[in-house]
Amino acid sequence: MVPSSSPSAATATRPAFARWMGTTNQITRTFLSAGAIPGLINVAGGLPDPSLFPTDRLAAFARRAVAEHPDEVLGYGPIEGLAPLRDAIARRLGSPALPLTRANVLVTTAGMQGLDLIGKVLLDEGGLIAGQSPTYLGALDAWRPRSPSFRNLVLDEPGFDPERAFAGAQFAYAVPNFSNPTGRLVDLATRRALVAAAHRTGTWLVEDDPYGTLHYDGAALPRLIELSAQTAPGEPYAGPVIYMGTLSKEIAPGLRIGWIVAAPEMIEALTLAKQGSDLCTSGVTQRIALAAMETGLLEEIRPAIVALYRERRDALCAALSAHLSDCFTWEVPVGGMFVWALAKDPDLDTDALLPHALAAGICFSPSSVFDARGANRRGMRINFTLNPPETLDEAMRRLAAAVAAYRASRAAA
Amino acid sequence: MVPSSSPSAATATRPAFARWMGTTNQITRTFLSAGAIPGLINVAGGLPDPSLFPTDRLAAFARRAVAEHPDEVLGYGPIEGLAPLRDAIARRLGSPALPLTRANVLVTTAGMQGLDLIGKVLLDEGGLIAGQSPTYLGALDAWRPRSPSFRNLVLDEPGFDPERAFAGAQFAYAVPNFSNPTGRLVDLATRRALVAAAHRTGTWLVEDDPYGTLHYDGAALPRLIELSAQTAPGEPYAGPVIYMGTLSKEIAPGLRIGWIVAAPEMIEALTLAKQGSDLCTSGVTQRIALAAMETGLLEEIRPAIVALYRERRDALCAALSAHLSDCFTWEVPVGGMFVWALAKDPDLDTDALLPHALAAGICFSPSSVFDARGANRRGMRINFTLNPPETLDEAMRRLAAAVAAYRASRAAA
């Protein structure tokens, strides 16, 4: 009865992988592993500077999480998340105009799981997403297995009509604070228009807000969920905005703690979806997150994070001016982790530029990965949070060399 | 531009949820929250006894994970898992006949995510699963969103032909060690037949093994992946078995650490799937898991776990004999966490019995939830790991009272 080892057995045909596997890109994986290439400067990812991690405090929180709450954190927890953490998230985001309870809150295994769960509860094969364009690469990754259709929302296009843009969509998706990849802050009038359209059409409006605390200039604008609550101020939130938060950019991505704040009916649906995805998020990391909120650690570390990243944003923009002002344009972002650079030459193709950049020792994110159809080839996303100013200057010097090499290869072809 | 608060806006129709949401059950959630009902004895779940958690050791591991490896555990980790943990898992499962490297290993956010990822890479809408029947409820939950077809494998049915049973399936699924829900050990001849069929047909064969270390009598049988490796002993594993392990039953479910061991091509596919599900598992809990493996803690605590659960298994079977031998039959399981009891009366419906049981203060898992079509109504799964002997006796006393009340209500109807 031992399996036959005949050649035919060894070469038996495996069932095909699911269809979406043939349509995916591997670029996020490349970015995550690019850190291992010696000498490469990585401005592709959205990585924090590890020197900012409050290691000693988190190590103490980790010990106490297990020592003081063993049954809670070592056993199976509620799918929705630990009740005190849900309460803390409700308090953090809530206000008299936006009263929130734990029924409005689901803890997720960081932001990526939030995106996956939203797709899981709202998308049948081919369902329509109205997504802010260009779109966060990770959101495209999360939704690709459900083979959605995409309608691009170009929020700053003249005559943009959100109500028409939302028609027929299962949900709309936006990153209003320092959008990934463009770093742009969505203005108040557009925020109001998006929320009004969601209310009028009934469309769910996903507000993805990983960067909200990384604000370098000027004042914060109201969140979409706050504007939505103004339609029924003081009532328990039951509106169309699905707000997503995370600790990944605010303290440490390795905790894998995020949250969704939404109408209770949406939280119930997402909970059912999470049940079959990972049953519950680790109680250990939930308790660490709760301690970081309750002790005020998040507020303590914020000024240093903002100061460091502001300095690096300025350094990156200075380096762009010094080395690349003749071939790229960009805006100085008021927050977040990225500068979005567009080639002045409409024929410059950043997908084709990337191999030259890698050869020159720099990895950026080409704009094609932020479009569901890979259509946008003229831009790039450049991260400024991971590297110090002198490295960012060297990175832009290398990028300028890569552009020269790319042009030379095109001229020769 | 503030959203209108007219009645029509407040009642705008939301897009429909995805279709699978209408077909799901909420029973796992009921089990997980049943712990909160005062006085209820919960024999429904698969919960460990928290008194067995090695709290002090894990608290120390948690602190050291953060203090000694801050950049690694607080930053984004590789999607596949931390390299030393993948190596440790390869060493643990590997042998001279089954050489494994980290290319064979993916770390998952516990066993449930493993099931979700396998469905994600292998199932298009309506894809066929050949699953050991009755089937683990959580696997049905994980795959339901992809609307698969199920073919039930009744492994102990006379004339069972695995090759015919696998035909056309995207994958086969079995829990050979103390199957959930039946507690049954799949015998060696059937293991060999399953593996041979997988090799001949090319079908992926998922070996889900959460209970393998909870062995109370007799000797362990070889794993399916070990039998599979015998076709090409000593070569890097590239066969059809997809082995799933977890620390949930062996030390603590709250760590949410599991793993998949399989051919490198399958690990690569699953890694792409995990990228869009949660990007990576927390480095904090991965480092705790690694410490538990490297320090020998898992082996240290195993004898006490096995001794306690063996005693409880015996206590449950004695209580069944004392209170329910006239209306149920069962086998004494040689391992795992469950006894599977079948009603002698073919018309007894355990779905209909459950409300009487809850009224009597006991919660069990009705057999219908372990069938993709909800078809099996005559059995129940009873957990023996969470409660001490006297509570198990009281639980079976209550169950007998519930059966009497159920019968009286049927007679009256």
UniProtKB/TrEMBL annotation, chains A, B:
KW Transferase (keyword) present: yes
Gene Ontology biological process terms from the UniProt entry: alpha-amino acid metabolic process
Tagged with keyword Cell inner membrane: no
InterPro entries for this protein: Aminotransferase_I/II_large, Class-I_PLP-dep_aminotransf, PyrdxlP-dep_Trfase, PyrdxlP-dep_Trfase_major, PyrdxlP-dep_Trfase_small
Record SUPFAM superfamilies: PLP-dependent transferases
Gene Ontology molecular-function annotations: pyridoxal phosphate binding; transaminase activity
Required cofactor(s): pyridoxal 5'-phosphate
Aminotransferase class I/classII large domain sequence ranges: 67-399
CDD domains referenced in this protein's UniProt entry, alphabetically: AAT_like
Superkingdom in the source lineage: Bacteria
Alphabetical UniProt keywords: Aminotransferase, Pyridoxal phosphate, Transferase
Protein's recorded name: 8-amino-7-oxononanoate synthase
Organism of origin: Methylobacterium terricola
